[in-house]
Amino acid sequence: MAGRIGLAHLPTPLQRSPRLAEALGVDLYIKRDDMTGGAEAGNKIRKLEFLLAAALSEGADTLITCGGIQSNHARATALLGASLGLRSVLVLRAADPAAGAPLAGNVLLDRMAGAEIRLITMEQYQERAAILVAVAEEIRAAGGKPYIIPEGGSNGLGALGYVRAMEEVRRQLDLGLAGGKPFDVIVHACGSGGTAAGLALGASRYEIAPEVRTMIVCNDAPTFERTITGIIDEARALEPSLGAPAALRVDERSRGPAYAVASPEQRCRIVEAARLGGLVLDPVYTGKAFAGLWDMAQQGELTGKRVLFLHTGGLPGLLVQADSFSDALTAASVG
Ligand SMILES: *Cc1c(COP(=O)(O)O)cnc(C)c1O
Questions:
Q1: Last residue of some domain: 129, 153, 177?
Q2: Residues lining ligand 1, Cβ inside 6 A
Q3: How far apart are CA 153 and CA 71, in angstroms?
Q4: DSSP of 43-61, one letter per residue?
Q5: How far is the CA of 177 from the centre of ligand 1 (A)?
Q6: Do strands 116-120 and 211-216 pair parallel, antiparallel, or not at all (unpaired)?
Q7: Which of 11, 189, 243, 327 is the most buried (most CB within 10 A)?
């Protein structure tokens, strides 16, 4: 069994949102993984419980990871690393690295945690695996002990965090929460695939839902299907008792204009979710996924179904885009 350290505040709530359920016309529940912690909260902690256990057991003193400039994963790594006495080097993708990283949102938290940020171009980011290895070499040459965490913490080991999350939901259902019955579908935002892989394996193993609907926020479905299948295979190699995954459907309707850019309609849905349910979503991941869920409901695809939406966090990504929300605040059709 892979080692794990306790970093998240668990179990996270499993809630029904009556006003949102009514607005969408579906039997909707929300797994509040935005509440896995304080400023470090979100879905990445569950993966880091396994990844940082491995880093510590290897005697690492420096974590190296990568992501977009406002990466939630990089922020969680920097904060949790600091709590464990580990240094972090964050290789972040920026449109214009020469302009530097504005001190806002996740970047502020990264810097507060003492992380070193290295900006690279979108083009260089294609070669991120090689760049992370080169940074590790550099740290080793200086006498340090690096541990590389892939983008999003998304490998087989990190995905085990979401297998355990499904075990947690099983215990909640057994206690009678959410009516005590399994769901028909789990809906969640996907950016690097590790959450999807763990959910699909855990949903099947713990009989949480027969289907995982993976709302991608960038790239395309075939790319993610390959990536997620690879992560599932890695996770099963680490935990051979895992059986076949639940049916995984990668859905492109949430992508929006670009990574980290939401459409006006998606921003409206974000405002409406806050007004109807007090549910705060973000324009990079959860808001796009929830707008997709809303669309599925309107298309009648969820009629009569019990739906579990996984809230994966991302609040700093909303606050850093505050300026783009003034139109949505007026255009939203509720409140
Ligand atoms: C990283 C992230 C996701 C996507 O999870 P992956 O495992 O990378 O696919 C979803 N929501 C939020 C808020 C995230 O930070």
A1: 153
A2: 42-43, 72-73, 152, 154, 189-196, 285-286, 312-314
A3: 11
A4: THHHHHHHHHHHHHHTT--
A5: 25
A6: unpaired
A7: 189
pLDDT of residue 310: 99
> Which distant-in-sequence residues (6+ apart) come within 8 Å of 302 by Cβ?
24, 25, 26, 185, 293, 296
307 and 168 both lie in a single domain: yes
Residues with active-site annotation: 71
Atom of ligand 1 nearest to the CA of 188: 10
Rounded distance from Cα 271 to ligand 1 centre (Å): 20
pLDDT at 81: 98
Rounded Cα distance between 20 and 28, Å, is: 8
98, 142: one domain: yes
The ranges of the chain with pLDDT < 70 are: 335
| Contact between 310 and 183 (Cβ < 8 Å) | no
Tokens of 279: 């549910």
pLDDT of 209? 99
Query: Ligand 1 atom closest to Cα of 282?
Result: 13
- Ligand 1 atom index nearest CA of 194: 7
Our mutation pick for probing the ligand 1 site, out of 190, 250, 315, counting the most ligand atoms within 8 A of Cβ, is 190
- The total number of structural domains in the chain stands at 2
pLDDT, position 332: 85
Residues 109 and 186 in one domain: no
Coil, strand or helix at 248: strand
